[in-house]
Each structure stands twice: as structure tokens, then as C-alpha cells.
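so i finally got all the pieces together for this one. its three components total, 917 residues if u count the protein bits. some of the lines might not be protein, just check the labels. i wanna see the whole assembly predicted at once instead of chain by chain like last time, that was a mess tbh
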Amino acid sequence: MYTLELKVNGQPYKVEVKATANLLEVLRDKLGITSPKVGCETGDCGTCSVILNGKLVKSCLVNALTAQGAEVLTLEGLGRPGALHPLQQAFHEHYAAQCGFCTPGMIMAAKALLDENPQPTKEDVKHYLSGNLCRCTGYVKIVDAVMAAAEEMRR
Amino acid sequence: MALNVVGQRVKRYDGLAHVAGETKFVDDVIVPGMLWTKVFRSPVSKGTIKNIDTSAAEKVAGVAAVITGKDVPNNRYGWGGDQYVLNDTAVRYKGEPIAAVAAVDEDTAAEAVSLIKVDIEEETPVFDPLEAMKPDAPLVRPEGNVFMYGDRPFRAIVLGDVEAGFKEADLIVEGDYLHPWLEHAQLEPQTSLAVPDASGRLTVYTVSQALYLHLQSLCSVLQMPMNKVHYIGGTVGGGFGSKNDMHADHIAAVLALKTGRPVKWRWTREEEMLYSTAKGSWHMHFKDGVKKDGRIIARHVRSIHDSGAYVSLNAYVVDKHSFLVAGPYFIPNVYVQGYAVFTNKPPASSMRGFGITPATFAGEVQMDRIAEAVGIDPWEIRFINAFREGEHTATRRVLDSVALIEVMQTLAKTAGVQLPDRLMAMSSTQRR
Amino acid sequence: MKKRGVGIAAALYPTGMSGGGDSSQAIVKVKTDGTVDLIIGSCDIGQGAKTVLAQMAAEELGIGYDQVTVVNQDTDATPMCFGTFASRVTFVAGNAVVQAAREARSILFEVAAEDLEASPDDLVAADGKIFVRGAPDRAKTIAEVAGKANFAMRKLVVGRGHYMRNPSSPDPQTGQTDPFATLAWAAVLAEVEVDTDTGEVEILKLVTCYDVGRAINPLLAEGQIEGGTVMGIGATLMENLYPFYPTQAWQPESYHDYVIPTAADVPEIVSAIYECPSTNGPYGAKGIGEMTANVPAPAIINAIHDAIGVWITEVPVTPEKILKALEAKG
């Protein structure tokens, strides 16, 4: 076991982890932060997407110890009810979440996109989100929500 | 009376919980002292189990229990009552569960599974449903490879006289179609958490799409009354038909009762792809008798459904296909033969669209081939044959609230397609 | 060379289990302040059961959608529902919810009748009030009535609903049967571009029209249509669980070999909703959840034929199949 120190959603944590543990298991099983989901564990589906030191990652592919000293942002840290982030508000308004399983990863991917490119086209959004699978919505309302949030954030 | 709430674009009931990351799926329920499950699956597609040796697995540090079929109070379940919770006689597909381990973590459970030794006398499997239908084919199941609808090996739908219709027709259009196996690919994998308590009750957190049918089914497996099993679910991370069959609750429940501890089983994506239920394939042959004016007056469809190794929902899936494979058109002479055929694959079952997905695919490509054969536009051929109010299907179900003509007119308007006035003037309420 | 084509397909789909016999129950419990618990056994698999069933309860009781709490997660509390499949919940559970809400409402009407000096049959519930039909000033708030029911009249305000179509077994010889509650109708138009050198098919646009009977919530109906349409695109162009069927060789083991559509694969989708009310569903609703995945494949394949003159009779339509078909055509 090794000691991992990191900040998640602004809060510092110190936990003992196995050398082989990935960031997703640490977030879920050690820290009880369950918005990142276990969808495939092979980096294909994107349900575990989080922002690590400002960059979008699939947390199932990140060895936890490489996040030593890192800052991690998950959906829990983006905004809370009553003070939602414009992306969360737009996903709700535009019906961009059906079953909700892909939603935490999808919103984090959209957050990373808007951090990089505050003025994306629809095509930009579609391509940026293509590492995050959704089987319910057909993505139409997800793309609409991201475009609406981008506009709201530019105001 | 005017409606106030119905018809409104109100926001999703649980939408705020979804976007805030608060929605709890089964895997998000984490109970102290929880054990994890891994399962020994059959390495062969067909064979007789001679011996199961779990002794080495039981000795692994951190293993709380290893179970086989003899530990299951009632080892048979499923829509056809023919599936094994843990097979201890003869396996029918590669990946069929034979033994299960509960241990302190997934790695320990997996290590124990690798030490389970099962002697299986391997037999010749059959994968092709067309081969499986032949009289000398290896038997997938003792009752035979074709599901019997009464005394017939197929569901028969007979309307009018299809042979007379073919004679009366100006031309015959035939087509063969193949629809493949499909996976639901829902994002949330099969997951179950079973928590026993001191009162003898078992609480099961489930991904089921059909909470009450699972309650009934699990009570039958455990031989417990319904008030001893407390099911919690109702929030599902995508279903599409993948969570009508019980995949994980039964094994987690037996392990929980055996160990007296909470047990979770979360399938890997690989297990999901290889071994969960799926939409089975369809081989379809259409033969249509058509008049020069575009009317289809006779249709014979012979459909063969690859059902995999167990009944599951397949007899129902073939029924649903057979009832409506003649399509949204009035055809006075219809003969349908729908076969459910067993092969040594994981069981097919329900998936969004059931047996009507292949019927719509084949039937609508066939419509365009008919249109080409008689030299009539694809829109017009559909208007000519579309069901009208008060007509009946091939099973003689009389129809109301018919709107195919209006739906096609709306589609044309939405797509900016200029249809001839005579088509735009038609109505489902006009008699043919 | 790139060639374009247009194709259409039409379809029907049954609502509820084929063969009937699939029940759903509902309980509507009115709290003493007039807010409501809707207790159902139906799962929400993402399609929005909680939303549309809450809308129906609110409609019948004359209260706001936000005053309904849905309890569906626990078999200790909830009554029987067959399950969320067969495009059945909006219709079957919906019918049960409407019945339950009306029974609860009739208890409120009995309580209110005395104060309003009217027959319960002449009362209406809307906008959070119970009032005399045609005389909206003669009114009590639902909160007042619900409170009076308990504190003065010693009544429990609970409604019960149950809906099930009679089972219908096919005749063994002819298959004659009345298997479904109602049918929904659909038509889809596809525009494609086929690259005759590479065999690749690009879907340029899909236009859809679905008869939903009555859109209980048009936003959610659109969600079903868009989601099903994209699942249909996957089934048409990408997905195959046994690529060397009928053998199990090279069976996909993950999402990188069982490829489903991503956001980047989605063409322009235009959806029209048509409403031809069913005679037996709640407010005329029909079930459309499943059928939306069925119609894209034939529309796309017919568009491919329009573009390059070949019939593809096996899905998925891979570039290999297109090139082979072109070669066979010569």
C-alpha cells in the first residue's frame, strides 16, 4: 500500500492505495465520490470522465498514484442544487439526461471543452464529446444543451 | 376538457438529481463489509459436467464462500423455467455460470475462480440455426432444437388462402433477409447487491427493468415468500430489454444468504458483451403476390429466429414477430411461419423492438423491391396498401386509431417532399 | 464517386405485451396538505416513467406537477407492475394511475360537496382548487379539503388503480388473436451519400414522423424518438454481435470492437410528432419507446438503393457489403 495525497473538488484527502489501483476505484471506493461511473474499465465509454489538473481524463485509465498531489474535479464539485453550473442547468432544461448514467462523465467532458473553447460550433461539440457514449438520448439534446450553456457562459 | 399538465414540456422528474450527480445507481450503494463476486463460466459451448472441484478456491485467504448448483434452493429459473442459476448437469453455451465465489475484493474472488476445476465431457455444439433444424443435428436441449407451438414447430398465422392469392397475382416478388445479433450496450452493467439481515429478510438492490417479475423469480429461486425479499430498484442506467432477464440477483442473493454478509456482483463490460442476453438473429424469406396496380394480395413469410440456448423470452419474441410481420398494410391472404430455433449460444431475449425490428427491416426493403417490380413510386405503393380504419391484421385484429396515411403525409410535408394531390387527399378513414 | 439517394420506410408497433395479461397497479395517496404521493411499481429506465405518470396524476387531481412525489423504488411500498418493456408503461401504468387519481379525487369531492353545497358529480378539480362546475368562485383549495378529510371527516384519501388487457392466446391452427392494446404508426425518410470507391455510407439527414397517440410530454417523446433513431443508425451501419455469424469467432468484448454511435455519428434529425389518439389509452396515448429504433434501417437501405441501385439485404451495411454488391451488379 502507498499513500496518495490529492485534492478532490477542493477538499484534501490522504488515502492508502494499492500500486495497481486506478483513480476511478479510489474516487468511488475510498472517497465515496460516486458520480464517476464504472461503465467499461477500458477507457471506451467515458462514464468515469473527470478533470485532472485541468485536463479531461478517463479516470479508469489513470493509475491513482500518478495523481499524487493533483487536483481533481468531478461533477459533485461543479455545482450544487441551488447553485448549478450553466452546463448542469442546460442539461436539465434541454432534457439532455435520460437514464443519467453517462451524465456525470458527459458534463465533465463538456466542461473541459468549454474551458478550451468557449465558442464551439455544433460540429466541435459532437467531435469533442465522441469519447463519451450515451445509449439513450441520441446526443441531439446533449449537443443543444452544451451550445446553450456556452452561450449562457459568454454573457 | 382542456389539459393543464398533460401535454406540457415539463422537466424530467429526476433531472436535477441526474445533473448534480446525486442519482444513486446500484453500484453507488456501498455497504461496509461488502463482499465481491466472480463467477466460473463454462469454457466450452456444449458438454456434460462430470465433476466440480472447488476445494482449492475455498482455501484462498479472503474467500467467504464458493457455491455451485447444489447450494441453490431451486436451481431452475427463467421465463421458460429451463435456465440454471449455476449449471451442474450439462452446459449449453460458452460462458454459462457453473460456480460462484464471494470474497473480500474482486481480485481475490477472481484468483479463487481460477482455482476451480470442472471436468466437462465436451460435445459437438451447433451454432447455425439452419443446421440446428436438421433432423440429425446435435441436440442443444433434450426437448429438441425447435420450440414447439402446440404440435407445430412454428407459430402459424393463416389468413385467407395464400396459394390462391399467388395464382391471382400478376407478379411474384421474393426476397431473403438476415438481421444480425445485437447487444443492448446499455451503459450500466448488470449489477446486484444483496444484503441479509437478522430478521431473515434479504434486501436486494437491483438494476431490473421489471422489479416485480424479478421479485417473483428470485423468491422462486430462494424458495422464500415475497415478504422476506425486499427489492430496491426502479432507477436503471439504461435497459433496452437487457434487464428483463435476471442476470445477477440470484447468484448475489444465494452468496449473501450463505455468508450472512452483503454481497455485490458487478458484471464486467466483457461479460456483458459475451454472455448477457441479446437480440437474436433472424433469417427471413418473403414471397409476395402483387397486382399490376400495386396491391399486395398474398404474402408468405418464413422466419427463423436464432434463440440461443434457452427459451427465455424467445417464444414470445417469435409470436410478436409473427403477429405483425405482414406489416402496416392490408393483405387479404397471409401465411406466416415463425420458428424459434435453439443453438449453443448465450440465450437471446428481449431487446428494444423485439421481433418487430427485423420484420420492419425486411418488410420495408421488400416494399421498395415490390415498388420497383411494378414500376410504382415507393411513396405511392405504401399509400395504396396502407391499413385503413376498421380493417384487420393477419391475426384478424380489427383496427382503430389508424394513421399511417396521415403520418406519411406529415413526413412528406416535414421533409419538403411534394407528393401528388391524390396521395395528399387520401385518409385512413376512407374505405378502400 | 459519391452518389446521393433518398429512401423511405413505414412501420407499425403494438403497445403493451403481445397477448395481453400484463398488469400494472397504482396507488395515489393525498397528504393532509393536498400534496400527493404516487406509488407505482414501474421502473424508470431513462425513458421518463416518473415524469409522465406524475403529470397524469397532477392532471386528474388538478394540482401542479411539482406537488406529486413518485415512489417507485421499493417493493415493500409499491404495488405490482409487470415492468418497463414492450412500450407499455405510459399506456398500461398510465391507465392505472388515471384510475387511482380519479378514485382519490372522488373522495375529495365527497368531502368538499357539503361545504360547496353541491353534488360531488358537479365538482371539478383544477388549479389547486375544487369548485362547482361553471361557478369557479364557489371553491375550496385542495389543501383545505385534504385537511378536512382527515381532521374532520376521518377519511383516508387514497385511490387505487389497476389496468390489464385480457389475455388472448392465438388459435393453434390459424393464429387468430387480438394480441395488442393499440398500434402506433411511423414513417422515416433518409438521405444518404454513398462513396462507390470506399463503400462508405454517410447519412446526411433523417426525417421522422411518429404517431404517439397523445404526447403526454412532447419533450420526452422527442427524447425517445431521437434516442431510438440513433440506436437504429447503429444497427444499420455498425453493430453486429457475431461478425462471423453463425460462429462466435471474433466476438466483440468491449465498446472498441462493438461500436455504437457517438455524438460525431449523428446526422441532422428532424422529428415530427403526429397525434392520432388511441381509444383506450390515458388521454389517447400510445407506446412508441421501442419502434423508434426499428424504422431507420430500411429507410437508409432504400436510400442506398436509390443512390447506387443495389439491394442490401443483410444489416449491418458495411463498406465491404456495398463494394461486393456494386461488383456483383457490374
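The CA atoms of residues 87 and 288 of chain C lie 6 Å apart.
The first strand of chain C starts at residue 2 and ends at 14.
anyway lmk what u think
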